[in-house]
């Protein structure tokens, strides 16, 4: 008798090629209208699925995972960050969790570089002026921004994405500074001509642009707290393509309102998808809808990683991108 295919529930629409392959390989339930699952729908999914394919929009907290049936063996996350999944509960229940690292590194770094350029050079502001029909023509003192070349970039979290941003930023003449749990291998540090700061506080007080590339964990929640944000100098810019929760967003907004910071470029928010309305009124802020890794190529690559993770798991092997069980 043919072995029954595992039931795979995919919570959001994925690229066609990925969904088609998913249907060929597994007994697959797709989300054709791409609505974000409600809590009730998530609970129903974990109660039934052998494999769940969630995204960042699915809050798989303790309460939801507590209602998982014993058949749920794998959460194959479509995405790198897993902060929306309660890993402790998943571990207790013996659920394997995988993610999709590497394939979104370059796209996210590209977007970060665009954001690093965008606020000091007033890109969105200029574009809004043209669209408003109020541009009256060139003048030598109009729309002056700040030079990027020669500025110090402080990278918080020097993993794959942080390093990819550093490589780009060097091409733009920025000096690379970083704070990371672990210091980089001397060869990489040398290649990037990067200065390591064990103390985040000290780095913040000395850099011109700060960009966040660490994951959101209990240890990094509000890493950029009100106190730490105050260490930044008035001409500094803050860029975030990682997770909103790493920055105390209310404190950031207050400082921007009071002119204690030069500007911010945010692709992620503390309470996504809601955005603090005060940010919408500010000219020195660029706001993007969590699109750091949003390329067609990247989404297909992410989907392929999910397929490989599920297939190896159901074939009885260890999937390549395991977050759980931990290897250490
Ligand atoms: C993804 C991301 O678009 O992978 C991540 O951690 O933040 C994004 O780039 C999203 O998470 C997909 O679930």
Automatic annotation (TrEMBL):
Domain D-isomer specific 2-hydroxyacid dehydrogenase NAD-binding as annotated: residue spans: 113-292
Coiled coil region boundaries: none
Keywords, ordered alphabetically: NAD, Oxidoreductase
CDD domains per the UniProt record, alphabetical: GDH
Keyword Protease found: no
D-isomer specific 2-hydroxyacid dehydrogenase catalytic domain: residues covered: 17-323
Gene Ontology CC entries for this record: cytosol
Molecular function in Gene Ontology: glyoxylate reductase (NADPH) activity; hydroxypyruvate reductase [NAD(P)H] activity; NAD binding
Keyword Calcium: no
UniProt cross-references to Pfam families, sorted A to Z: 2-Hacid_dh (PF00389), 2-Hacid_dh_C (PF02826)
Family: Belongs to the D-isomer specific 2-hydroxyacid dehydrogenase family.
Protein name: Glyoxylate reductase
Source organism of this protein record: Insolitispirillum peregrinum
């Amino acid at each position: 008798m043919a072995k029954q295919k595992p039931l795979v529930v995919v919570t959001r629409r994925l690229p066609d090629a990925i969904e088609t392959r998913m249907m060929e390989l597994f007994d697959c339930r797709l989300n054709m209208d791409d609505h974000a699952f409600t809590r009730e729908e998530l609970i129903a999914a974990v109660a039934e699925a052998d494999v769940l394919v969630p995204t960042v929009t699915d809050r798989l907290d303790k309460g939801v995972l507590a209602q998982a049936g014993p058949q749920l063996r794998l959460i194959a996350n479509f995405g790198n960050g897993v902060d929306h999944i309660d890993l402790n509960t998943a571990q207790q229940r013996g659920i394997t969790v995988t993610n999709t690292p590497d394939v979104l590194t370059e796209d996210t770094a590209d977007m970060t570089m665009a954001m690093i350029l965008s606020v000091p050079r007033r890109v969105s502001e200029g574009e809004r002026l043209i669209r408003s029909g109020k541009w009256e023509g060139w003048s030598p003192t109009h729309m002056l921004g700040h030079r990027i070349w020669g500025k110090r970039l402080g990278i918080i979290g020097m993993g794959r994405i942080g390093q990819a941003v550093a490589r780009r930023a060097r091409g733009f003449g920025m000096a690379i500074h970083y704070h990371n749990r672990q210091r980089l291998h001397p060869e990489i540090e040398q290649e990037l001509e990067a200065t390591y700061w064990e103390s985040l506080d000290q780095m913040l007080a000395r850099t011109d642009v700060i960009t966040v590339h660490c994951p959101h964990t209990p240890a990094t929640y509000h890493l950029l707290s009100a106190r730490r944000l105050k260490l930044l100098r008035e001409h500094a810019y803050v860029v975030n393509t990682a997770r909103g929760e790493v920055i105390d967003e209310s404190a950031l907004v207050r400082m921007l309102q009071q002119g204690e910071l030069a500007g911010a470029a945010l692709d992620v928010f503390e309470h996504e998808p809601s955005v603090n309305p005060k940010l919408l009124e500010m000219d020195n802020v660029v706001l993007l809808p969590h699109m750091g890794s949003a390329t067609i190529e990247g989404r297909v690559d992410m989907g392929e990683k999910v397929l490989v993770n599920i297939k190896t798991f159901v074939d009885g092997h260890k999937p390549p991108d395991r977050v759980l069980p931990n290897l250490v």
